[in-house]
Fold this sequence. Notes:
The chain is mainly alpha-helical. It has helices spanning 2-6, 10-30, 44-52, 55-65, 68-88; strands spanning 33-35, 41-43. It has a two-stranded antiparallel ribbon with strand order 1-2.
Amino acid sequence: MYFAAQKRNWPLAQYWFNETRGHIVWLTRKSPTVRDPDGKDVDIKGIFDGIDTSSLAAVKTAIEKKNLVEFNATYKTMLESCYSCHKSVGRPYLRPMIPTARVESILNIDPNATWPQ
């Protein structure tokens, strides 16, 4: 999502946003609570619901508006929100960051690509 937005490939950024959100929704439906290291149940569905309607929604809006400056700011806030959830379930070692390299090198993210047709 991040690299697609940097290239202003907004349809691809929207696709990755939907994929990311869908995976988290699936996870929270499958396991709405997680036990932290102290043995307490943490309501991750409730945490995600808050993130979904705040920082994640702001990223979605930035993509819809095709606003790179807004996207970069909201993306960073979203990562901070994700990290707060990771900490609340006792996994502070899962520290998201702005990516420095693409994971999928098979996809051309250039919105003006001409091949394949």
